[in-house]
Design a protein that fits this description.
The complex is a heterodimer of chains A (163) and B (288). Chain A has 163 residues and is of the alpha+beta class. Chain A has 2 domains: 2-76, Beta-grasp domain (Ubiquitin-like (UB roll)); 86-153, [2Fe-2S]-binding domain (DNA polymerase, domain 1, Orthogonal Bundle), CATH 1.10.150.120. Chain A has 5 helices and 5 strands. By secondary structure, chain B is an alpha+beta fold. Chain B has 12 helices and 14 strands. Chain B has helices at 14-24, 37-42, 78-82, 85-90, 92-98, 104-109, 112-118, 125-132, 149-152, 227-233, 240-247, 264-287; strands spanning 7-10, 28-31, 50-53, 63-66, 69-73, 135-140, 143-148, 153-155, 158-159, 166-173, 179-187, 194-205, 208-217, 224-225. In chain B, the strands form 4 sheets. A 5-stranded antiparallel beta sheet of chain B has the order 4-5-10-6-7. In chain B, β6 (135-140) and β7 form a beta hairpin. The chains are: A alpha+beta (163), B alpha+beta (288). The A-B interface holds A 2, 18-22, 25, 41-44, 46, 49, 55-58, 61-63, 65-66, 68, 109, 112-113, 128, 130-133 and B 1-8, 10, 31, 34-35, 38-39, 42, 51, 53, 55, 79, 102-106, 108-109, 190-192.
């Protein structure tokens, strides 16, 4: 067993986990943060993407024990004081989801993308989200959603029509 | 899916990792990025009793050039390499290759040392490392040694590393005037592993190709060089006709593996196509 102290969405948790526990299972089953999804479970689909120390990772292929001392952000950590993060708002406004299963991973990957590139082209968004699979939207509205968020985070006026 | 139970140890130094390897022998596996090992462990294809985590070992980090050699710590991630100004200027093919491995999450985790030690048949870096003619620095309890790219890959998933040895650094030549290298791959659309990948490195002196190394990955059980293509291109101008002629023998003398993604015949055909693309780009880079 491994004793780990992990800061998740700003709260510090000290837990004992089996050495083989995957980060996604720690988040979902021990912390009840079920916004992070398990999709393919083979590190291809991206439904499980979270940020570890600011970098996007696939939590189905990350050991919880390795994250001792790390800071983790999940989809539940994005909104502040009950108001949606610009990415959450963008997916809402631009119809960036249908079934919603891939959405938490999409948004967390897009968070990392916009942190590195605040003014991406559509191509750069598509390339940056290549580790996230969506079977509903055809990606078009996901790209618009990320553009909406990018514009809003740059302080520009936004609407679902012009994203 | 959850791996079989194991004991996890976070190593804080190379010496500690090597001591643990010697203590546990075949029961232990080293984990760096873990994006090859953990999926294999979930499928119970690999069931190590002890996992030695080297991801946080500071000695395995660092990217620097000294003279004509670019040295990259084995623990540097693909993303760090792809975005390193030092790599982009000293050996651009390494940056472009690491920048197209998997996706950003894979690149945030996977390491250059891990890729070469694992020697996946469809890895990208194995071919680029062979084409560049690099070396790995390997450490064990007995000291350090160097293994040349041509000697590293023994068979599918097998390298010349002995038990108790750890790759600590990867060394490749700094590209100088007249030298160019490129990597071209047909990628699997979901995993982005190479269905066929070809790396080429050429030197052009006085308008003539004076040195050439070509290596193929993805198509067979291990990355292999293409001596007949290399020989055919040396002494030519490296123009389109010379590349086409040289690539006639590409992939002729190697083992193939077919799977649900691509048959052996398709891979054999694509080796010629991607060898020509890689050589065309490498020659253009050498002339730039």
């Amino acid at each position: 067993m491994a004793k780990i102290t992990v800061t998740v969405n700003g709260s510090t948790h000290t837990s004992t986990v089996e050495d083989r526990t995957l980060l996604v299972n720690f988040l979902r089953e021990q912390l009840n943060l079920t916004g992070t999804h398990v999709g393919c479970d083979t590190s291809q689909c991206g439904a499980c993407v979270v940020l570890v120390d600011g970098k996007s990772v696939k939590s189905c292929t990350t050991l919880a024990a390795r994250c001792d001392g790390a800071s983790v952000t999940t989809i539940e950590g994005l909104s502040t004081d009950g108001s949606m993060h610009p990415l959450q708002e963008g997916f809402w406004e631009c119809h960036g989801l249908q079934c919603g299963f891939c959405t938490p991973g999409m948004i967390m990957a897009a968070t990392d993308l916009l942190a590195q590139n605040p003014n991406p082209t559509d191509d750069e968004i598509r390339h940056g989200l290549e580790g996230n699979l969506c079977r509903c939207t055809g990606y078009h509205n996901i790209v618009r959603s990320v553009q909406y968020a990018a514009a809003k985070m740059r302080g520009e006026a936004v609407s679902s029509q012009n994203a | 899916m959850i791996p079989a139970a194991f004991e996890y140890v976070k190593a804080s130094s190379v010496a500690q990792a090597i001591a643990l390897l010697n203590q546990h022998g075949d029961e232990a596996k080293v984990i760096a990025g873990g994006h090859s090992l953990l999926p294999a462990m979930k499928l119970r294809l690999s069931q190590p009793a002890v996992l030695i985590d080297i991801a946080h070992v500071a000695e395995l980090k660092g990217i620097k050039t000294a003279g004509s050699t670019l040295t990259i710590g084995a623990g540097e991630t693909y993303h760090a390499i792809a975005t390193s100004a030092t790599v982009i200027s000293a050996c651009p093919v390494l940056a472009s290759c690491t920048g197209q491995i998997g996706d950003i999450q894979v690149r945030n985790a996977g390491t250059i040392g891990g890729a070469l030690a694992h020697a996946d048949p469809a890895a990208d870096l194995t071919a680029v490392f062979l084409a560049l003619g690099g070396t790995v620095t390997v450490q064990s309890a007995g000291g350090t040694r160097s293994i040349a790219a041509d000697d590293l890959f023994v068979s599918m998933l097998m390298t010349a590393l002995d038990s108790g040895e750890l790759i600590t650094a990867v060394n490749v030549p700094v590209m100088s005037k007249g030298q160019g290298a490129a990597y071209a791959k047909l990628k699997h659309p979901a995993s982005r592993y190479a269905i066929v990948g070809v790396a080429a490195a050429v030197t052009i002196s006085n308008g003539v190709v004076s040195a050439c190394r070509v290596a193929v990955t993805g198509a067979g059980p291990q990355a292999v060089r293409q001596p007949s293509v290399e020989k055919a291109l040396i002494g030519t101008s490296g123009d389109a006709a010379a590349i086409k002629a040289a690539c006639a023998s590409a992939g002729a003398d190697m083992e193939y593996l077919g799977d649900i993604h691509a048959s052996e015949d398709y891979r054999r055909a694509m080796v010629k196509v991607y060898a020509a693309r890689a050589l065309t780009d490498a020659v253009a880079a050498a002339r730039a």
